[in-house]
């Protein structure tokens, strides 16, 4: 029997829909391109499944999908739980002023407030406890004080479970295994944060409140079916609903399958949902009326990382939660630049890999390219232990354009491409970089802006936004304010793709809040 709804992708948009619709009694099928990961299989050693290869997912369907566009690299997660598996757990609301322009009149901070509350009820965010402050947190707080920004400094909410009796670890490396466990509000076993610093590569302590442990757990308990290793290709209208064509890659080959439902929700992320609509509209021509706005107003959310080195200060960027605090300049008071500074961190296995990459000469594999890029960003010869990876987001130009273009290596084939020019992003990104330099030198550190920006104006973003932006009409948007695709009743987009502009801070909670609102409307009206 056909399900009531097919959801494509199990990240922040998809999980919220799966949970709310399944608990309301709908039969729900979730198609997810990645694996179902468990603590025992998170990647750790060089030969583990790190890479998700979109050209050959049946051969490589690992942790990270890294798209290398001209002048922009985009990192996203793959697996049941989507970006929540790989993310740094920062779970915060957009600033009200970021919702005042660019969005349709129905969306603003007051409207979203109850939906943010619902997300918080599920993700249970906490702040880093005072008895567990990390050296990076302390450095950032002192730097804020020294630069007159103490009022802008704050801890950020993290979707992490902290033990109130916990402490910053005295042993190095900290244990990855939880010392204490508990049953969460959704019946799943979790542990408390051990400060293992592996937030971006899967938390073996299960201290991250990732979507598989809350929204998706509730959805599955209510009967939702999640089908991992199911890569959706395109959508075909059929009768009063849609056929979803996907490739089952679970046995190492590609087997085409078709499933049908009256409603389909694309929640494959900014790149994934935009790609599926492009393929449907321009390649298979099954959704010919999708708006001409498809692909426009794409944003990198102005992300930037500046490593800074301190002579006499041990900062251990591989210990403790990846991000813990922020210095908020989104009000534009720094000469119009709007940005949000955060501390950063990276897993120890990454620092080991970077060290190895500096001594080995493998030049041609994708892994070698990634590692040498990371090496160029993270290290210029100083010990990593005294390095602070200053991170943050900013209001970029929001003027990228995703399009369906020719693949230069295989000219017979078309693929998702990105047209990106840094010109209109210079103010925001430049402001963020200047803040990184200012904060570094206030504490006697030396900021090292990677040549990838300084010379080439290349960016790397983990926060892709837009591609299927919402709008008041098909002339200005691809979907309406509930995410329904103009011209295609019952077909929705619910993920970061619907953002019409950057928000300058971590977006996952806003994606989930918009999905809560969309799911509620779906239950009321259909
Ligand atoms: C290293 C890193 C750290 C981050 N840290 C933070 C943070 O601290 N706070 C924050 O707010 N954000 C953070 N982000 C960003 C955050 O992860 C994303 O903004 C968020 O996950 C986007 O949600 P989404 O629902 O749009 O898509 P996703 O969460 O990316 O979900 C999309 C899902 O669709 C699946 N999919 C894609 N294509 C297909 C297809 N064709 N068929 C089937 N399934 C498909 C994907 O595998 C994925 O599971 C981070 C990202 C990275 C990479
Ligand atoms: S610091 Fe370690 S234990 Fe804590 S949430 Fe991150 S990965 Fe889990």
What does this structure look like?
Helix content is 25%, strand content 21%. The chain contains eleven helices and 21 strands. The strands form six sheets. It has a six-stranded antiparallel sheet with strand order 5-14-15-16-13-19, with helices on one face. The chain has a five-stranded parallel sheet with strand order 8-2-1-12-21. The chain starts with a strand and ends with a helix. The mean pLDDT is 94. The site of iron/sulfur cluster has 14 residues, from loops. Residues 8-13, 31-34, 75-78, 82-83, 86-90, 200, 231-232, 267-269, 272, 276, 323, 462-463, 495-496, 506-508, 511 line the site of flavin-adenine dinucleotide.
Question: How would you concisely characterize the structure shown here?
Answer:
With 526 residues, the chain is of the alpha/beta class. A 6-stranded antiparallel sheet has the order 5-14-15-16-13-19, covered by helices on one side. It binds flavin-adenine dinucleotide and iron/sulfur cluster (SF4).
Terminal-residue CA separation: 20 Å
Strand order of the largest sheet: 5-14-15-16-13-19
Q: Fraction of residues in helices?
A: 10-25%
Low-confidence runs of at least 5 consecutive residues: none
The 3D shape can be described as: globular
Q: Supply Rg.
A: 22 Å
What ions, cofactors and ligands are bound? flavin-adenine dinucleotide, iron/sulfur cluster
Q: Average pLDDT across residues? A: 94
The helix-and-strand class reads alpha/beta
Number of helices: 11
The major β-sheet equals: 6 strands, antiparallel
Fraction of residues in β-strands: 15-25%
Care to count the β-strands?
A: 21
């Amino acid at each position: 029997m056909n399900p009531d709804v097919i959801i494509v992708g199990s990240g922040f948009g998809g999980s919220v829909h799966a949970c709310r619709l399944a608990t309301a009694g709908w039969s729900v099928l979730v198609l997810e391109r990645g694996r179902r990961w468990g603590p025992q299989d998170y990647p750790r050693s060089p030969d583990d499944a790190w890479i998700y290869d979109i050209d050959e997912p049946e051969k490589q369907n690992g942790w990270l999908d890294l798209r290398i566009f001209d002048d922009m690299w985009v990192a996203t997660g793959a697996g049941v739980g989507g970006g929540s598996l790989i993310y740094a757990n920062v779970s915060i609301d957009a600033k009200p002023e970021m919702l005042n322009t660019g969005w349709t009149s129905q969306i603003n901070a007051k409207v979203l407030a109850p939906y943010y509350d619902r997300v918080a009820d599920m993700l249970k965010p906490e702040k880093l406890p005072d008895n567990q402050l990390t050296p990076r947190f302390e450095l950032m707080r002192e730097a804020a004080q020294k630069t007159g920004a103490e009022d802008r400094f704050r801890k950020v909410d993290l979707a992490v479970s902290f033990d109130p009796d916990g402490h910053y670890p005295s042993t190095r490396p900290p244990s990855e295994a939880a010392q204490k466990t508990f049953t969460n509000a959704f019946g799943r076993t979790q542990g408390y944060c051990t400060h293992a610093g592996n937030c971006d590569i899967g938390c073996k302590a299960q201290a991250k409140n990732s979507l598989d442990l809350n929204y998706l757990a509730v959805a599955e308990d209510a009967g939702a079916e999640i089908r991992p290793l199911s890569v959706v290709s395109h959508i075909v209208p059929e009768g009063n609903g849609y056929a979803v064509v996907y490739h089952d890659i679970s046995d190492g080959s590609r087997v085409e399958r078709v499933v049908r439902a009256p409603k389909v929700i694309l929640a494959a992320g900014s790149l994934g949902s935009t790609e599926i609509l492009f393929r449907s509209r321009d390649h298979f021509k099954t959704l010919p009326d999708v708006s001409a706005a498809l692909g426009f107003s794409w944003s990198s959310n102005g992300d930037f990382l500046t490593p800074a080195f301190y002579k006499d200060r041990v900062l251990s960027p591989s210990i403790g939660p990846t991000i813990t605090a922020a210095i908020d300049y989104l009000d534009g008071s720094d000469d119009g630049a709007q940005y949000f500074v955060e501390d950063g961190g990276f897993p120890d296995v990454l620092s080991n890999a970077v060290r190895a990459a500096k001594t080995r000469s493998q030049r041609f594999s994708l892994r070698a390219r990634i590692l040498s890029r990371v090496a160029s960003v993270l290290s210029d010869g100083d010990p990593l232990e005294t390095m602070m990876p200053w991170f943050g987001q900013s209001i970029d130009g929001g003027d990228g354009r995703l399009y369906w273009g020719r693949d230069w290596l295989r000219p017979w084939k078309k693929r998702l491409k990105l047209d990106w020019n840094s010109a209109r992003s210079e103010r925001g990104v430049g402001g963020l970089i200047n803040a990184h330099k200012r904060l570094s030198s206030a504490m006697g550190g030396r900021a090292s802006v990677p040549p990838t920006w300084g010379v080439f104006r290349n960016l790397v973003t983990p926060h892709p936004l837009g591609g299927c932006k919402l709008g008041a009409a098909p002339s200005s948007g691809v979907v309406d304010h509930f995410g329904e695709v103009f011209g295609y009743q019952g077909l929705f987009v619910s993920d970061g793709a619907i953002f019409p502009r950057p928000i300058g801070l971590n977006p996952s909670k806003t994606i989930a809040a918009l999905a809560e609102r969309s799911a509620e409307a779906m239950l009321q009206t259909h």
